[in-house]
């Protein structure tokens, strides 16, 4: 009986861990055209983020500015580009999204 409880507990632990991981990996923040503050947009700070374009026929350009308003990164996303990993944001980062499609950060 003790082995059964241990095996059941291990199975439930693995099940809950896998469900939690998949739920967090699928969540993301979608931004349309505009200017956003990284902190106010609830984006992760000091962690590399991946960005992808939502529309299969859309285009978008993303500008990342640091707290001194100097350009940290620029990414051009087109229909063929699946995703791009961005450098980590700091608390004063500004994200500028320009284009006809929204983008998702995750």
3D structure, described in words:
Keywords: Signal. About 25% of the residues lie in helices and about 35% in strands. With about 110 residues, it is of the alpha+beta class. It has one domain (about 30-105): Jelly Rolls. The strands form 2 sheets. It has a 4-stranded antiparallel sheet with strand order 1-8-3-6, with no helix packed on it. A 4-stranded antiparallel sheet has the order 2-7-4-5, with no helix packed on it. A hairpin with a 5-residue loop joins strand 4 (about 60-65) and strand 5 (about 70-75). The radius of gyration is 19 Å and the shape is elongated. The model is unreliable at about 20-25 (pLDDT under 50).
SSE order, as H and E? Answer: HEEEEEEEE
What structural category characterises the helix and strand content? alpha+beta
How many helical stretches?
1
The residue ranges in which pLDDT falls below 50 over 5 or more consecutive positions are 21-26
Number of spatially distinct domains: 1
Q: Give the biggest sheet.
A: 4 strands, antiparallel
Strand order of the largest sheet: 1-8-3-6
Compute the CA-based radius of gyration.
19 Å
End-to-end gap: 43 Å
The CATH topology name reads: Jelly Rolls
* Shape summary: elongated
Beta-strand content estimate: 25-35%
The average pLDDT value, as a whole number, equals 84
Q: What is the second-level CATH architecture?
A: Sandwich
Class, according to the CATH hierarchy?
Mainly Beta
How many beta-strand segments?
8
What helical percentage do the residues reach? 10-25%
């Amino acid at each position: 009986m003790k082995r059964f409880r241990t095996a059941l507990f291990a199975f439930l632990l693995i099940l809950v861990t896998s469900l939690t991981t998949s739920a967090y990996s699928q969540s993301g923040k979608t931004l349309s055209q505009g200017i956003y503050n990284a902190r106010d947009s609830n984006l992760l700070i000091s962690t590399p983020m991946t960005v992808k374009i939502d529309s299969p026929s859309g285009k978008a350009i993303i500008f990342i500015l640091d707290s001194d308003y100097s350009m940290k990164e620029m990414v051009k996303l087109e229909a063929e580009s699946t995703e791009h990993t961005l450098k980590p944001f700091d608390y004063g980062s500004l994200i500028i999204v320009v284009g006809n499609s929204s983008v998702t950060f995750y």
